[in-house]
Amino acid sequence: MAWFFSKSSDEGIVLTSRIRLARNIDGVPFPHILDKDSAKKVVEDVTSAILDSNSAISKDFDVINLKDITLNERMSLVEKHLISKDLINRSDISAVMINKQKNVSIMINEEDHIRLQVIYPGFKLKEAYELASKIDDLIEERITYSYDTRLGYLTSCPTNVGTGLRASVMLHLPALTITKNINNIINTINQVGLTIRGLYGEGSNALGNVYQISNQITLGLSEEEIINNLIAVTNKIVEKEKKAREMLLEKQSVELEDELYRALGILKYARSISTQESLELISKVRMGVEMGIIKDVNVDKLNELFVNVQPATLQLLEKRDLSPKDRDIVRARLIREKLN
Amino acid sequence: MAWFFSKSSDEGIVLTSRIRLARNIDGVPFPHILDKDSAKKVVEDVTSAILDSNSAISKDFDVINLKDITLNERMSLVEKHLISKDLINRSDISAVMINKQKNVSIMINEEDHIRLQVIYPGFKLKEAYELASKIDDLIEERITYSYDTRLGYLTSCPTNVGTGLRASVMLHLPALTITKNINNIINTINQVGLTIRGLYGEGSNALGNVYQISNQITLGLSEEEIINNLIAVTNKIVEKEKKAREMLLEKQSVELEDELYRALGILKYARSISTQESLELISKVRMGVEMGIIKDVNVDKLNELFVNVQPATLQLLEKRDLSPKDRDIVRARLIREKLN
């Protein structure tokens, strides 16, 4: 969980930078029409492309066959953004390689044969892309990608054809949400070839005021153009969030201070709390700390909680399955222990 | 404020016991038609009846002419239940004698010439009545009361004619309120010659789940009958509150625990809070402490806050007039300081 637990730059507004490359093996049908034996061979070929390479990187990776782990363990990987829900839906044939630092994951037999992801804390899109390219090259030493000289990389879904690149940043935008300015941003973002989503991708809500922004277009632009475009837009949004925070501080400091401190009070004292409420409150307290309103709360602990309060991760930490009601109780206890 | 700050019996359900005697001076018109000079003489006669007596009690009393104190000081006396709002409405002619222990107050030129009140913490109606009678006798040594052998004591309002006695208890009934059983109690209480009101008497809401129960009838029953009737009914309500608390504990302990602890969290962390919200939260925390759910909060501090958070008392403590917005801020600070 290095990506989430580390301190990030930009006053914590850019939580993470993520690069995802979609690749397929030449001559092999896409996963959704692949028979089990061929799927197994895809897993073998991709894993050995990494593990058998001479690169130092290869020693960092573990291979996890999805069918070998519990549903909770799978869901916890989703909560940590290391795999997608789609990979779980194909658990009989899918696998993932995750490195020790937990910032690189290679999903195998998701929508495409290979979904290579690098995730960094803070605003580090270029660094993430460099590492992704390096691993991409490593795989390509042993595997021939499905590639068209005119279109670029061929993918299962046409929206990924071309670079196969999805670059995204995860932003914490509580002040823009409180001031409702986020609605303007959502409207304009689509006009510049980007898309904005909640914490868990397409169709998900902005739990805890966390938003993902990513490129919509993979075709017709170079990797550099895609990344530079995202960097420019992100810089603008970060500026807007900073301005919104300044405005909040100036305009209604007591109301804001009260709202943020009450969030802290509830987190420290609740005996039962849902995932959604806890993410919302953690988000508020995090903003309070970053704005200098709330003292003596460690932002790293908040970041850690942001992941650990989620249902599957919570149950893994607790080492047992819990009913929703018991999860709320255990979640409240975990938060109290961490913050008190 | 001895009556409020002291620990009370019955697990804190009976906050206070109060006896009030209405008396008038024979041959003197009732206060609402009294000219200023005659009103002044009433104040002199009543105060000297106490101050010039040979009783040890006399040395305990201070005389306060309402016109000599600020509006805030007057309102704070109301908040402490030492005077009525009616006494403030006649500030040009009214006075009050208050003893050092602050459990006896003698209002002069309220609705009647004399309103003698004794208030005790806990469930001590008989003791309160004994002390009230003793002071009543002391005044009668020098003043001839307006008395009719058939009707009893004559009063300005016919509802007080007879004994002139109003006996009341102040009850903290959070569990009956939460379970909504309080509605049944309110309906039945009127059928047994008693009346139930909020924290500040007639027409007031049950702020902080505090209710006053008092006799409606002053005529046709002896003082002993009135008091015994109130004691019997109070015992029944206390039983019902205890049962409601047990039921809450059994049925939904996590939800209840969560609600009570969140109340504590908000009190400890809010930066702005209204009188009403703070009374509601203090009430919940108080019940939590009494039920053994919340540890390490001192119930005496909660009782103290219950009075001190109120607007006028708050401003007296702060030694300055405050806008409503500033009161909310100062109130939140006072609560934090007391509970942290």
TrEMBL record, chains A, B:
Q: Phosphagen kinase C-terminal domain: from which residue to which, for each copy?
A: 13-244
**GO CC, one annotated term:** extracellular space
* Domain of life, source organism: Bacteria
A biological process (GO) of this protein is: phosphocreatine biosynthetic process
User: Where is ATP bound in this sequence?
Assistant: 16-20, 81, 115, 166-170, 197-202
Q: Which InterPro entries match?
A: Arg_Kinase, ATP-guanido_PTrfase, ATP-guanido_PTrfase_AS, ATP-guanido_PTrfase_cat, Gln_synth/guanido_kin_cat_dom
Query: Has UniProt tagged this entry with the keyword rRNA processing?
Result: no
Reported function: Catalyzes the specific phosphorylation of arginine residues in proteins.
Family indicated by similarity: Belongs to the ATP:guanido phosphotransferase family.
Q: What is this protein called?
A: Protein-arginine kinase
